[in-house]
């Protein structure tokens, strides 16, 4: 796969940066994990707030994002590693650590990933249909659509995209596959969705297109499965008493899970009883922030 040069200027703007920095309650000497470090937008501002005595561990499944992060987040107290936040215990064990003071997860897709012409994340691009965060593991979206049954495709779109026309879209995708025109690139998937839903030709931002792309990305990266396992089985073991976790979500499927996990845990107390949202001025400057929600919880002292 062709890779974009990581030296290219990042276009991503970190979401709710001011709120994240305030809610993490940062100070000198803390050990902070940015579990979805991306291009380093949040971590770049976290680093000076924890000082030379602090430690910043940035992890991401996407190698290209880590290369970008390395350009703005560096120093003797910084570790950047390609991994999922689900593997946090293993990442910490390599450094002789068992727990940390702060954890940040930004579950949104980076603007750099969306703009990449050869990753397939953005419906405004026209490249191959991959959508994997780690291109060396798992199945690409084009491979999924080439092998999954009509029912399986419909279930993915319904469960992860919550689109009412999931059955029609799946039927169209499989029909094209049977006629010798499998879905292999972004344009073909957009056209198939529009054909199945009666959308206008070229309407790449129709609600169904947005939902299908979300569903396919979630499916191939097992995003909700990883989030569930992290909240249930990893978080209780890696956050120190008095430590804080902040999670930014971008759709109801994620936010519902975070909300329930924070409220039901006997080890956490809510710092934000209701989620924080971006200010109107931030949304004007960065429209992709409009659906963001920030929830924060603190580990009870025990």
Shape: elongated
Number of strands: 7
The proportion of residues forming helix, as a percent range, comes to: 40-55%
SS summary, helix count: 13
Distance between the termini: 49 Å
* Helix-and-strand structural type: alpha/beta
Family: Belongs to the methyltransferase superfamily. RsmH family.
Catalytic activity: cytidine(1402) in 16S rRNA + S-adenosyl-L-methionine = N(4)-methylcytidine(1402) in 16S rRNA + S-adenosyl-L-homocysteine + H(+)
Function: Specifically methylates the N4 position of cytidine in position 1402 (C1402) of 16S rRNA.
Enzyme class: transferase
Overview of the structural elements:
The protein is α/β, with parallel strands linked by helices. It is built from 13 helices and seven strands. The protein has a seven-stranded mixed beta sheet, sandwiched between helices. The chain starts with 16 loop residues before the first helix and ends with a strand. The relative contact order is 0.14. One of its GO terms (molecular function) is rRNA (cytosine-N4-)-methyltransferase activity.
Secondary structure topology:
Layout: H1 17-24, E1 31-34, H2 41-50, E2 55-60, H3 63-69, E3 78-82, H4 88-94, E4 100-106, H5 111-115, H6 141-147, H7 150-161, H8 166-178, H9 186-197, H10 207-221, H11 223-238, E5 239-249, H12 252-264, E6 268-270, H13 280-285, E7 293-299
Parallel strand pairs: 1-2, 1-4, 2-3, 4-5
Antiparallel strand pairs: 5-7, 6-7
Helix pairs in contact: 7-8, 7-10, 8-9, 11-12
Looking at this protein, list some descriptive labels.
single chain; about 300 residues; alpha/beta; Rossmann fold; DNA polymerase, domain 1; 2 domains; seven-stranded mixed beta sheet; about 45% helix; elongated; disordered N terminus
């Amino acid at each position: 796969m062709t890779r974009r040069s990581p030296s290219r200027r990042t276009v991503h703007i970190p979401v709710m940066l001011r709120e994240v920095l305030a809610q993490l309650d940062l100070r000198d000497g803390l050990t902070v994990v940015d579990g979805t470090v991306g291009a380093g937008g949040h971590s770049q501002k976290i680093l000076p707030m924890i000082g030379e005595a602090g430690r910043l561990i940035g992890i991401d499944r996407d190698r290209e994002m880590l290369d970008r992060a390395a350009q703005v987040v560096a120093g003797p107290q910084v570790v950047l590693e390609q991994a999922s936040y689900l593997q946090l215990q293993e990442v910490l064990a390599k450094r002789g650590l068992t727990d940390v003071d702060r954890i940040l997860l930004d579950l949104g897709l980076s603007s750099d990933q969306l703009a990449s012409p050869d990753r397939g994340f953005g419906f405004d691009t026209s490249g191959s249909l991959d959508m994997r965060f780690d291109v060396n593991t798992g199945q690409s979206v084009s491979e999924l659509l080439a092998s999954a049954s009509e029912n399986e495709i419909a279930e993915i779109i319904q469960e992860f995209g919550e689109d009412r026309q999931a059955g029609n879209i799946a039927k169209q995708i499989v029909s094209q596959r049977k006629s010798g025109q499998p879905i292999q690139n972004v344009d073909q998937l957009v056209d198939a969705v529009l054909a199945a839903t009666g959308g206008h030709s070229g309407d790449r931002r129709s609600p169904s297109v947005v939902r299908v792309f979300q569903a396919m990305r979630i499916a191939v990266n097992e995003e909700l499965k990883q989030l569930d396992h992290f909240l249930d089985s990893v978080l209780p073991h890696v956050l120190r008493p008095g430590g804080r976790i902040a999670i930014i979500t971008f759709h109801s499927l994620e936010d519902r899970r975070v909300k329930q996990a924070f409220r039901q845990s006997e080890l956490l107390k809510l710092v934000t009883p209701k989620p924080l949202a971006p200010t109107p001025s931030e949304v004007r400057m960065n429209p992709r922030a409009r659906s963001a929600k920030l929830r924060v919880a603190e580990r009870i002292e025990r």
